[in-house]
Specification:
Elements (H helix, E strand, L loop, with lengths): L1 H20 E19 L3 E8 L6 E11 L2 E10 L17 E8 L3 E8 L2 H6 L5 H4 L18 E8 L6 E8 L12 E10 L2 E11 L36 E13 L2 E13 L10 E15 L2 E13 L4 E13 L4 E19 L5 E5 L14 E12 L1
């Protein structure tokens, strides 16, 4: 009896110690609304349900274990789902948003292994209008991953400690292709700075064979997988699915003064061909945007933004996009929002016809990362409800 009692006491003590050193958090977001889009697939209008506009729907587990001497083991498993249908997002992956394990040190920084956001998304995206009115003021077609259309698998990422407001990140992702190490790889880096009301960030991301399904006659490309997701959301960059690589440079700055938040950003995305691409000249997208947010009170804000994009190289097109929105917090976890956007396009785009041949067409408007193909202009309005847990 004494031995049994002693064992029970020790087990309870160890259990309490483990609980004190280890934590696991369940979290998530559910965002669903009604949407109206003018000029979809020609001149048709769309009215229906849309999920995950202000925030991508997700549930996840985040945990850490104290290993002593300032070192922790960390992990995140994050699932993406469609709240309108219940289906999985991110290509049907169980944990398609994030899935990584790592070690974190206050002194030396954090090392993570697995599926993750790239450093530019980590540092730049939060300083753009995406944080306030989603992609309604974002890059047309999301050609520069403004709205996080892609994530990176097989990735090793390092995040430095913060030094006087400065922090940097670096990432390398393996293509995992036998005999072709460079095929399907991705890499990037970014630096961010925050001091009082000012925040700024800049970075670069590169992905090789960004569309794993591209077909070529090169033996080393047959069956090639890509470490990054596809970034081809709609008609604007549809003609470049056979790109050998995509390089994206982005920078943004944000300043808060009283109830106002002012921000601006710039990006350059280059879609480069090789001898097996369906296009032969690099297509470049230069994007400039700015926005203003005004907090009427702690629960209510209004925002507006403008984006200009010019495509050059293989084709030439110009896009103007304006976005407006308001958000009202019903509680700390639940809010309602109303957003709208207008885009005008001119020039030419590359696309594929029904026979699979690459052709040029008049530029079609396609707001943000919504992916709807329009005419030379497109309008969009959405009202939604978002709950965090």
């Amino acid at each position: 009896m004494y031995k049994k009692t002693s064992v029970a006491v020790v087990a309870c003590a160890l259990s309490g110690l483990a609980n004190a050193q280890t934590s696991v958090t369940l979290y998530g977001v559910i965002d669903t609304g009604l949407i109206y889009v003018n000029n979809v697939s020609g001149k048709d209008d769309l009215f229906g349900m849309k999920q995950g506009t202000m925030s991508g729907n997700r549930w996840g587990l985040r945990g850490e274990e104290d290993l002593g001497s300032g070192l922790k083991a960390v992990f995140t498993l994050e699932n993406g789902f469609n709240s309108a249908t219940g289906a999985l997002n991110q290509g049907g992956r169980e944990f398609g948003r994030q899935a990584f394990v790592g070690l974190s040190s206050d002194r030396f920084g954090t090392l993570r292994l697995g599926r993750q956001y790239d450093p530019v998304v980590d540092t730049v995206q939060g300083l753009t209008a995406d944080a306030y009115i989603a992609s309604t003021a974002g890059t047309p077609g999301d050609v520069d991953n403004y709205d996080n259309s892609l994530r990176v698998s097989n990735a090793v990422k390092y995040l430095s400690p913060t030094y006087a407001g400065l922090q940097f990140e670096a990432l390398y992702a393996f293509g995992n292709n036998a005999g072709a190490t460079g095929q399907g790889q991705a890499w990037g880096g970014a630096v961010s700075y925050k001091n009082g009301p000012l925040a700024a960030a800049a970075g670069y991301f590169y992905t090789n064979n960004p569309n794993a399904g591209r077909t070529t006659t090169k033996a080393s490309n047959w069956g090639v997988t890509s470490s990054s997701d596809s970034i081809f959301d709609g008609p604007i960059n549809n003609g470049y699915t056979t790109a050998h690589s995509i390089g994206i440079a982005r920078a943004a700055a944000q300043y808060t003064v009283g109830p106002f938040v002012i921000g601006a950003s710039y990006s350059n995305a280059q879609y480069k061909p090789d001898g097996f691409s369906a296009f032969q000249s690099t297509e470049s997208y230069n994007v400039g945007s700015g926005y203003l947010t005004y907090w009427i009170n702690p629960a209510l804000r209004v925002s507006g933004g403008y984006t200009y994009m010019h495509a050059s190289g293989d084709t030439s097109a110009t896009y103007h996009q304006v976005g407006l929105g308001t958000d009202y917090a019903l509680s700390k976890r639940t809010d309602v929002y109303l957003i709208g956007s207008y885009q005008h396009a001119s020039g030419t785009q590359a696309t594929y016809n029904s026979a699979g041949q690459r052709v040029l067409q008049p530029a079609q408007a396609s707001i943000g990362s919504f992916g709807y193909a329009g005419t030379s202009h497109q309008e969009l309005v959405q009202v939604g409800l978002r709950h965090r847990f």
